[in-house]
Structure formats: C-alpha cells, structure tokens
Amino acid sequence: ISGYSLVVQARDSGTPPLSSSVTVNVDISDVNDNSPVFTPANYTAVIQENKPVGTSILQLVVTDKDSFHNGPPFTFTILTGNEEEEFTLDPHGVLRSAVIFKHMVSTEYVLCVQAKDSGKPQQVSHTYVQVRVIEESIHKPTAIPLEIFIVTMEDDFPGGVIGKIHATDQDVYDVLTYTLKSEQKSLFKVNNHDGKIIALGGLDNGKYVLNVSVSDGRFQVPIDVVVHVEQLLQEMLQNTVTIRFENVSPEDFVGLHMHGFRRTLRNAVLSQKQDSLHIISIQPVAGSSQLDMLFAVQMHSGGFYKPAYLIQKLTNARRHLENVIRISAILEKNCSGLNCQEQHCEQSLSIDSHSLMTYSTARISFVCPRFYRNVRCMC
C-alpha cells in the first residue's frame, strides 16, 4: 500500500462539545528490498554460424516489484563465459553476437549474466544463458503464390490488410523476413516479420504485380503476388442477384470453391463470351452457417442484365451449379416476414465501402465491402 489518508477529529470537553477535523495523508516510502527477477529464470538460445556481427540472439526480460525509482533502468553485465568477448549485451537487455561464429570451433557457450536495479543500495540477480551454435541454413524458404482480389467503390478504397504470405523453411531455427521493392511502397507495404500485405488508400482499378521476396538470412526467394482491383459502379448495385449457400464459411468458399463456382456461374448466366461477371461481395448470414454472394453481369455493350433475367438463368442451371457447392436460395427480393405482395416489395442495397471484409487463405485473398439489404412494402 503506497499511502493512507486519515481524517482526525479533535473534540473539547465543553457544553456543548465543539470539534474540528483535519485530513492527514501518510505516504509510504519504498525501500529497495526486491531484487530484479529474470523471466524465465534461465535462458536457452541458438545462433546460426556465419551470421553477421551484431545479430540479435536473445532478449532478456527483467521485472522488479519495487517502485519505479528503485527498479528500471537495469544495468546488465556478463560476469562469466565471455572471456573471448564473443557477445555483447546492450542497455535494453539484448544479447548480440560480437564475432562470426563457426560451428566447427565451438558449439556451445554458457554465460552468467547479472542485472542490477537503480535503487540505493542496488539489488542484483543472476541468470544463466546457454547459447548453441548451429550450422547455417541449408534449405531455401518456400512460399505459396498469392492472388488477391479487391472490390471497392469508385475512388473510395480506405486501405488495410489485404492478405498474408504463407512461407515455410525446413531449417528449424530460420527466421523468415519479407521485403517489398521500394518503388511499390507508395501503394503497398509488407510486414517484415509476418508477411501481411497492407494496401494504402486510393488504389485505382487494375492489376498490380508485387515484387515481394522472403529471406532466411542466407537465401532470398521471390514470391508471386498479384493484386486485382475492381471498382464498383452504382448501376451495378441496382442489378444484383444474391446466391445463398448452405454450410460454408467465407474462407472455405474463397479457398475451395470460388474459382470453380465462378467458372460454372459464367457458363450458366453469360449470354456472350464478352459479357463480364462481377462478384461484388460475400458475407455470412447473421445467426446461421449460410453465406451470401452478391453478383452482377455486365453486357459487352456496357449495360447490365436485369436481375429477373439472371434469376431465370440460375434457376435453369441450379442443379449444375450445385455440383460445385450446395445452394440454399437464389434471392432478388427478400420480403420474408413483410405482409405485402411481391410486386409491392421494394428492395434497396447499400454498400459500406469503409467497412471492408478480408477473407484470406494461403493462395487466394478476397477483400470486399460490407453490404446491407433493406426491403419495405409499397402497398
């Protein structure tokens, strides 16, 4: 307890008795009676041979139960095991290499490290760090090519995480890092540590091929990353049809079914090869295991097919479509629960272009806006 606040009252012996109160604050000063604590108590780390001088090996973690002026900053010292000065320890507790290690020279080092707090008198504690020198990387990283589809309203893309690169390495202790060529950093970024791809705002319609690579410190491997950006037109939203799927998650649909279903759907609804199929959005149906896919078809001449025409085409081809994935319903109007005849039911569709949903798998990522369907009776 760092302090107490007391209210003290003095009362005299007169008639009637009179009294007065005062507040007394008592602060408890901290004494430096706790030593720093290493977490964990002892450490084990590895470093590959031939790594450059200054390679980070280990981050020491130290806490202290005393108040802040009796705790950090801590002073770190290597007491034993560093007689040849192969290691350095910076003020933040990061252990780094001071030489280029060779596996044939020595395979193991044991260091005794001391941490000293900032109190008076200072308290100290010790830990042991076992560092193993292993052979350098012999396997190249492997990465899966990634294709990303982004659907957004015209000139209204807010940016965000659009996918993640999946890479592996057979060398157990390899740490993979990801880089993007500098000339593309005005539009995209790649997280160096986890491979997440971030798109900045305002992407134009079109195809982008990113020059991404993954490195294990010795080998650098290029990764094929292609980004397709499609901007929606308002006219497109007025001619949409929804296909509702049964028992499928967005990620499973994107990773397992979207490519095949798109091809089958094109064969079912396109009247001419020059027509264009646009998948506008996919999103789960709240409170169920169903999934809605919103799409429209653009004619070669530039206009869009009416929903009634597309629904007729879909109905005729439904059995063929269900060879790919089970369909729960084909929706144009959604008047369920409204007490009006279908011809008196008006549907409006709104797109929230700033609420993007990213469905990412190892090979395909689909980024689309959230949509809302509203219906009302006109009778």
TrEMBL record:
<dbReference type="InterPro" id="IPR050971">
    <property type="entry name" value="Cadherin-domain_protein"/>
</dbReference>
<dbReference type="GO" id="GO:0007156">
    <property type="term" value="P:homophilic cell adhesion via plasma membrane adhesion molecules"/>
</dbReference>
<dbReference type="Pfam" id="PF00028">
    <property type="entry name" value="Cadherin"/>
</dbReference>
<dbReference type="InterPro" id="IPR015919">
    <property type="entry name" value="Cadherin-like_sf"/>
</dbReference>
<keyword id="KW-0812">Transmembrane</keyword>
<dbReference type="InterPro" id="IPR002126">
    <property type="entry name" value="Cadherin-like_dom"/>
</dbReference>
<feature type="domain" description="Cadherin">
    <location>
        <begin position="39"/>
        <end position="143"/>
    </location>
</feature>
<keyword id="KW-0106">Calcium</keyword>
<dbReference type="GO" id="GO:0005911">
    <property type="term" value="C:cell-cell junction"/>
</dbReference>
<feature type="domain" description="Cadherin">
    <location>
        <begin position="154"/>
        <end position="245"/>
    </location>
</feature>
<keyword id="KW-0472">Membrane</keyword>
<dbReference type="GO" id="GO:0005509">
    <property type="term" value="F:calcium ion binding"/>
</dbReference>
<keyword id="KW-0130">Cell adhesion</keyword>
<dbReference type="GO" id="GO:0005886">
    <property type="term" value="C:plasma membrane"/>
</dbReference>
<keyword id="KW-1133">Transmembrane helix</keyword>
<protein>
    <submittedName>
        <fullName>FAT3 protein</fullName>
    </submittedName>
</protein>
<keyword id="KW-0677">Repeat</keyword>
<feature type="domain" description="Cadherin">
    <location>
        <begin position="4"/>
        <end position="38"/>
    </location>
</feature>
<dbReference type="InterPro" id="IPR020894">
    <property type="entry name" value="Cadherin_CS"/>
</dbReference>
